[in-house]
Every structure is written in structure tokens, then in C-alpha cells.
Amino acid sequence: MLENLEGRSLLTFLAVLEEGNFSRAAEKLGYVQSTVTSQIQLLEQSCNQKLFHRLPRGVKLTEAGEQFALYARKFVQLGHSLEEALENLDHPRGTLRLGSLESFLVTRMSNFMHSFFKEYTEIHLLLETGFQADIVEQVQSHVIDFGIVPMNPKKEDLIFEPLIEEQMIVVASKNLAHLIENEGWENTSGIQMIGFGSRCVYHTEGLKLLSEMGLPSEIRSTGFASSELVRQVVTCGLGVALVPKIMMAQELAEGSVISLPLPRQVTFVHGIVRHKKHVLNTPSKVFYRALTEYFSNQTSIGSI
Predict the structure, then answer these.
(1) By mean pLDDT, which of 12-16, 84-88, 164-168 is the weakest?
(2) Rounded to whole angstroms, how far apart are CA atoms 150 and 162?
(3) Cα separation, 291 vs 147, whole angstroms
(4) Average pLDDT, whole number, for the chain?
(5) What is the rounded CA–CA span in Å between residue 29 and residue 17?
């Protein structure tokens, strides 16, 4: 069967599937209807299966046609990827799709992004920000090429490659830190846990950690949409937050916030995650290679 298949016929098959009848598919492809009919007939002969039910107002896939459609899409995708790879060997061009935590982008990716897109001016980035669960789901459903997440999702269909270990700290404003030191957590009322909301792994781990440190279980927590808002709210003394150390580096140096003593070290291993079966285009391959090389040369903040 394979020797009788050709890309043009597969494209015609998919056009008929998308348009719902032969005449609209022919119009879309710039063919006469008889050409579309003969190509579908050739495919059916090659498969020795009927692929479409011919109906009065169009067509509908047979059971064999549904199976054929799955492989036709993969075949066409591979063809486009091959074409793009050969065209882009010298000058990669195209689009890659990435998802990441907003805080990681702000603190860890700015220098890399600047140098990468300065070198690869014809690669375009579609960027999504979200929480770990959102990013993992988007990678699994092939909505994005890669995700950068704070922990290994441990999914059988995904590949996770560590990039950097992130040391986490609990920070409070100078005044609030002194109050906690003098009064103790258990006697300090009204403290809020500041973070990115209940869906954020930082926030969840922070609440668990504060409970271990003696803060009452009924502590209020407040979520914000950006790392900048979290920084400002903590600096103003409205609560404490579990954040990457690098995120509050400036405030720590200025003395406007203080890192509180913890009962145990808290770290997250950020890494890049991709689907095992997702076919990467050339821009995505170039980005993946450059990103992993960049972080392999970085020093984990946990050792600073």
C-alpha cells in the first residue's frame, strides 16, 4: 500500500474531510471535481477499503476512513516538518510555542531571550504563562511545544529535563520580620500568606511550610497575578511569601525585606517538559538546544 500513497492524494483526502464534500474540496485545492474523485478512488483502491460514505449532501468517514485520517494527518505533519527542516538548515525560521511560570520568565529567562532572538531574528515566539497543571496539560494536548515547570510532572507521555535548582525562601518586610521574631508565629495575628493563588505550587508549599513553623492553620492567603505585585505587597508588610530567592534579590540587598529562618530547606527543580510523540519543528529544536546549553552553564542559586 505504501508505494501507492503520495502526499498530494493525502492532502486531497484531508481537504474532503474538512470541507465535507468533493466539490468544495476541489474549489479549495484549485482542482476540478473529477480530479478529487479520482484521487480518493485511488486511495480507496490502495487501502482496499472504502474511506467515505457518499451521502446526498456530502460525505462522511467510514470506520476505515477514521483510522486513515489519523495517519494521514501524521504523514502530512511529518512532510511539512521535513520540508521546513531542509529549508531552515542555514536560517531557522518559524514559530515555537512555550509555556512557563511568569516568575521564572522574569527572573531567569530575560537574558537568554534577549540573546536568542537577537541571533535568530526569524524565529517567533508564542508565549503562554500559567501554573504547573495548566502548562502540563497544554504540552500533553500539543497546544505548546515546551513547558517550563517547577517540578517533574512524572507523566508517562512527557519528557522532563532539569534546568536549574531554585532555592526558596520565606520573606517578610523588615518590620513584620521583627514582630514575628519578638512575638513568635503563634502570637502574631493577622499574617497573610502572599503568593500566586491556590493553584500555584509555591503557594501550596508555602502554606504547608508556615504550618510547620507554628502559624495557625486558619491563616488567610491572598493570590496575585504577577511576581511584581507579590514583591510590592510583601515589601509593604502585608504578609509573608514563599518565593524564589532570586525574585527578591534586590529587596534583600536593600534590607527592605528579610529572609526568615526555616525548619528545612525548600527547593524546586525547574525543568523543560515536552511530549514524547510531539514532532518538533526546526525553530523548536534550535530553541531547545540553546536553552538547555544556556542553563547548563548557569550556577544554581541554591549554591550562591
Answers:
(1) 84-88
(2) 9
(3) 12
(4) 87
(5) 13
How many other C-beta atoms can be found within 10 angstroms of the C-beta atom of residue 119?
Answer: 11
Cell of 222: 491572598
Residue 138 clears pLDDT 90, i.e. is over it: yes
